[in-house]
Amino acid sequence: MATRSDMIDSAARRSGFGLFRRTFEMMMGARERQARRFVTAYLASLDAETLAGLGYEPEEIRRILRRQTAR
Fold it and tell me: Is 52 helix (H, G, I), strand (E, B) or coil?
């Protein structure tokens, strides 16, 4: 899955953004990946009933709970 940072990194290289713009985009990409790790860890700590209550589909719940047991 392509993330925002992947798309911006390649776009930044093509269009020749300046040093500060590239640095900013790299920092934003790193924060995005960090936030994704935090959210994934939090979701993995929830039980199936809570995830279903939050609107997750059964397949998504299985994938999230599988990550929990993989640790």
Answer: helix
